[in-house]
Amino acid sequence: MDTREATRLLKGVRAAALAGDRPPAAPRPEIAESWRRMLAGGVHPDRDARSRVLSAAETEERRQVSPLREVLPLLREGLLPALDEALHIMVVADADGRLLWREGHRSILRKADRLGFAVGADWDEAVVGTNGVGTALVTRRPVQVFSAEHFVSSHHDWTCAGAPVHDPRDGRLLGVVDVSGPLATMHPATLAWVSSVARLAERELRVRHLESLERLRAVAAPLLARLPGRAAVVDPHGWTAAVTGLAPADRVALPKGLGPGPVWVAQLGDCVAEPLPGGWLLRLAEARGAAPAVSRVVLDLSRPRSWSATVYGAAGSWSQELSPRHAELLFLLAETPRGRSAAELATELFGDPTRTVTVRAELSRVRRHLAGVLTHRPYRFAEDVEVELIRPSDPARLLPHSTAPAVIRARLGRGGAPVVP
């Protein structure tokens, strides 16, 4: 479609959506969901709101602690040579939507400055409306926003394509890489290109993680050879480098604030933790009894981009950060105490009861971290476990990344997964 014709159509679609009228064409689902969030959150469609820009010192502090700093050369190599630097810019934002790095020709950078698209600026969706940085952070998926698909009218001369980057060690959202430029110069294939570079960045982080485990393993091997009893060496994220006297596990869930001394670890029981260069030595108590029973689980979905399950037992508590998919699954199970079959969960997640293989694989991963909490046949929380579900105060903010039919119903106040007799 001609660029000018496409722009006119998109402006007509947006105007109809704002007026509550029937649009000349349906907006793309991810754009429609974003616009609903903007209307519910009170973002003004014609007012260019901006939050305080970080100082140079604050920006540099965030740069220093961001894991994206490690892959910045790869992002530059993957994107900048193919960009027309006079017409496009590359930006890298952290998980809060703060722009940490920005590169491009001076002329396009000056245009971006007028839009507030500058280093240190806040491009969270709730601040500036639908955009390639903030909307990708909310949905945790690559997104391209064309012209009037931007909720705020001052952004209509631009098009942006952003893809999230996750930490392969724990699935944590690290930020977004985005390519932006004038509408007339952008192409639909830009999104696939930016997404591919984001995946390369995640792969590079994964390689670096494996290299760090190898270094930790070199430290652990002679140490474990001299130790009596059972022990494991893990990195700060719980990934296993070496074990002795134990069946190896890929990862163990470490309690938050782990420090030297006695500690209870979900998969191991009572341990003594000792710091090592790049990780921890966990020595298992040999006189331990049965693993402490789990009595309560708090499923916290109240935060916009970070969800957790906190497990309480006789020996204390520990928390597990949840991936977007695992947060969806645990929400569905919390909403239906009687449990759900794999086909029922597939229907509520994907609208397709045949996708049971995906459901079973994901629940197998969840159960590795939440041993003693979940049972199967059907999938549900254990009968003697009390479950507390903490939702966002605004139902529209429930798991905003999710397109699961049951979650969408819950956002609209129609309840979560329906109970099937």
* Averaged pLDDT: 88
Strand content: 15-25%
H and E string: HHHHEEHHHEEEHEEEEEEEEHHHEEEH
Largest sheet: spatial strand order: 2-1-5-4-3
| Beta strand count | 16
Report on the biggest sheet: 5 strands, antiparallel
Secondary structural class: alpha+beta
Helix content: 25-40%
Q: What is the CA-CA span between the terminal residues? A: 49 Å
Taken from the alpha-carbon principal axes, the silhouette is globular
Count the helices. How many?
A: 12
Radius of gyration: 24 Å
Query: Which consecutive residue ranges, at least 5 long each, have pLDDT under 50?
Result: 288-292, 416-421
Question: Any overview of this molecule?
Answer:
Mean pLDDT is 88; it is low at 288-292 and 416-421. The protein has twelve helices and 16 strands. The protein is α+β, with helices and mostly antiparallel strands. Helix 4 (68-79) runs antiparallel to helix 8 and helix 10 (342-350) crosses helix 11 (356-369). The chain has a five-stranded antiparallel sheet, sandwiched between helices. The protein has helices spanning 3-19, 29-41, 56-65, 68-79, 106-115, 125-128, 134-139, 190-226, 324-335, 342-350, 356-369, 405-411; strands at 89-94, 99-104, 143-146, 158-166, 173-182, 231-234, 240-244, 261-265, 269-276, 279-284, 294-300, 307-313, 316-322, 374-375, 380-381, 386-390.
